[in-house]
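Translate sequence into structure tokens.
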Amino acid sequence: MADMGGAEQRSTAQTVATRLWNSRWLLAAGIVAVLTVYGFADMSGYVVLLACAVLLLAAAMLPAGVARQSPEDAAAIEAGGLQQLSGEYLAAAVADPLIIFDRTATIVHANAAAFAAFGGIAPGMSLSLKFRAPEMQALLDSILSGAAASDVVDYTEKLPVERAYRVSSSSVGHGTDLYVLVFKDQSEARRIDRMRADFIANASHELRTPLASISGFIETLRGPARNDPAAREQFLQIMHDQTGRMARLIDDLLSLSRLEMKPYLKPGTEVDLHRTLDSVIDSLGPLARENGVAIERDFAKGPLNVPGDRDELFQVFENLLENACKYGQSGGRVVVTIAHSDDGPEPGIDVTIRDFGPGIAEEHIPRITERFYRVDVENSRTQKGTGLGLSIVKHILTRHNARLSIKSEVGNGAAFTVHLPAH
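Result follows.
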């Protein structure tokens, strides 16, 4: 115990001496200041001694962190801290699947993300047996043979679900004979790339069809129908319809692009659903009469206000009611209902647009809001549809923290319900 007490005393004395030495210039400046005041002012020697003692005490108690560290001291502290971290702790801190292996391609350690992604892996297992894909075998051979210090390949895991990874491998330090595999999940990026490619292909197809039709009629008008007034009038009308179709498609593409570029913000204004739906019904009155459809109103009493952007919600209800008038015209009527809804954690207002036409088969309902998806391609084009209307509806409702539900039976019409939060 005496030896321990003596060691503690020596350590304390060494710490105090170190602090005094590190603060020597500050201490010297303080003593000079006190002596200067003593020389020009009427101070007693006791006051001077007391001031110097206070300076010494303050310097001794000064925290070690305040003193300026040399680069060598900082490097030593950093090395000491890193030596306390094991490879297991470092691997656990990586969010991506990470596997450490040795020169025989045997797993030494795998983090929790690797276990979750691949399962069935454990220290002592052979990587070559676990990952049999040719690209993984080539990556392991390249690293273990020393042909490359680091390498990257694309790898797809098929089970339990298909996931795409960008796999990087490199050696760990120098002379450790350990190597690391890191799997960066690229599945979402690949899905977005496929969606973008599909969108461009679909948009190109939708534009190419009317362009080909217009080009063909132009050639006909220049040749065989040059002097045929009846054919010329018919072909010009078809060309006019096709250019209108392209214009509608471009307008919908621009609307969709603007919606996707807008940040997700809660709209700051309120919309009167009663007035908005009245305006939509009035604007589509000519279309309804042209298709022989009667639009009926069933609005709840009292205030029907919801937070939102009037123009965007007008576009939602216009698209839904226009579809009901076009594709449900055989039913002869469309019913527009506004009702208070108490379903869910918060109260809201439901707007339902129901037609009594042929309805929609159940297998089509989950995909009906996808871009360019059509239940009946020929009927959609006959009705001048672009295949983007319901996709625009979905994007607008997402911005409004709202949702769309669809109920339909073949032969009994379809009901599209917009669920809007009341606050």
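Note: Residues 64-69 have pLDDT under 50 and may be disordered.
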